[in-house]
Amino acid sequence: MQEYRTVAREGVHEIEINKSRFICALAPAATEEEAQAFIARIRKEHPTARHHCWAYVIGAEGSVQKASDDGEPGGTAGVPMLQMLLRREMRYVVAVVTRYFGGVKLGAGGLIRAYGGAVGEALDTLETVTRRRFRLVTVTVDHQRAGKLENDLRATGRAVREVSYGEGVRIEVGLPEADLAAFRSWLADATAGTAVLELGGEAYGDA
After folding, report:
1. Sign of dihedral through CA atoms 115, 120, 125, 127?
2. Pairing between strand 169-175 and 159-165?
3. Which of 138, 172, 181, 200 is the most exposed place for a label (fewest CB within 10 A)?
4. Cα(201)–Cα(157) distance, rounded to whole angstroms?
5. DSSP for residue 177
6. Which residue intervals of the chain are DSSP H helices?
């Protein structure tokens, strides 16, 4: 997975269908524990609601996918919510749809559309961000050249993640894998061949 989408921050979007209120709360979640804590918090915020259906997707590859109908007929709430998150390529995200029953039964098809639709509308309304996979590299350079190099890195749109000072200055940069060869050449030119480049692991950052 070279990139994925997630929500920028927590948010809430409400729709009404046949007098029932469907309140969709979305939040970023790095772990299952964070997702479950968010679900528990929403339950406390709406203690009189009949249902708190939820779904979450954790992992850049979507390795953890869970959903709950919370008392609605099986497969009519959590699954359509999860399917909407996956269709939109959302990761590290949790959705809770709180329903206040309005007295009119919607039927299985109506519930599927309502719960999936609540998540879809919330994603349309709230800000989403794309995160792209980067290779982490550490550049070590002398103090004399460090300030200019850091400025040049930022000016050329490269993601400077961390700068630490010791005998030399270590600058951690996130690069798309395809840019590594070009970056080596650029770095050699920018530092007259004095910088040392170390390859690190991988991480995701804002695209």
Report:
1. positive
2. antiparallel
3. 181
4. 20
5. G
6. 32-45, 78-87, 107-125, 143-155, 180-190
Residue type, 190: A
150-156: which pairs have CB atoms within 8 A and are 24 or more residues apart?
152/190, 156/186
pLDDT at position 207: 62
What mean pLDDT do residues 36-43 have? 98
Any idea what DSSP says for residue 138? E
Tens digits of per-residue pLDDT, 104-134? 999 999 999 999 999 999 999 998 999 888 8
| Two structure tokens written together for 191 | 């530092």
Is residue 147 within 8 A of residue 203, CB to CB? The reply is: no
Please give the backbone phi and psi of residue 22, each rounded to the nearest 5 degrees, phi first. Answer: -120, 110
Compute the distance between CA of residue 157 and CA of residue 140 in angstroms, rounded to an integer.
Answer: 19
Local structure of residue 186 (DSSP, 8 states) = H
**What is d(CA 185, CA 111) in angstroms, rounded to the nearest whole number?**
57
CA pair distance 12, 7, nearest whole angstrom = 12
- Quick one: tokens of 179? 């840019």
The phi and psi torsions of 121 (rounded to 5 degrees) equal: -65, -40
Write the DSSP symbol of residue 25: E
Cα-flanking dihedrals φ and ψ of residue 180, to 5°?
A: -60, -50
Q: Within 13 Å, how many C-alpha atoms sit on residue 87's CB side?
A: 12
Report the Cα–Cα distance between both ends of the chain, in Å, rounded. 13
